[in-house]
Amino acid sequence: MESSWKGIKEAITSTCYEVLDRKKHHHKEWITVDTLDKIRERSNKKAAINTSRMRAEKAKAQAEYTEVNKQVKRSIRNDKCKYVEDLAMTAEKAARE
C-alpha cells in the first residue's frame, strides 16, 4: 500500500513540476550567439540601473544601458535580415530544381 502511494505521489509531483514550473525563455532560431550575449549584457546593465542609489550613478548606468540596447536592437535586426535572405535563397534554389 505504501509503495503504491509513493508511486502516485511521485507521479503527481512530477506532473505538477512540468505544468507549474517556471517557463524557460526560448529564443528565436535566427538569433545568433553573439546577439544572445549582448542581450545578457543588456539585462546586467538594466539590473545595474535598478540597484544604483545615487542619481549620478543611475544616470551613468542609464546611458550605458541605452547604448547597449541600441546595439542589441541593431544586432537582432541584422540577424533577422540574414535569416530571411537565407530563406529566400533556399526557396529560390528549390524553385530552380
UniProtKB/TrEMBL annotation:
Q: What is this protein called?
A: Uncharacterized protein
- What is the protein's species of origin? Schistosoma mattheei
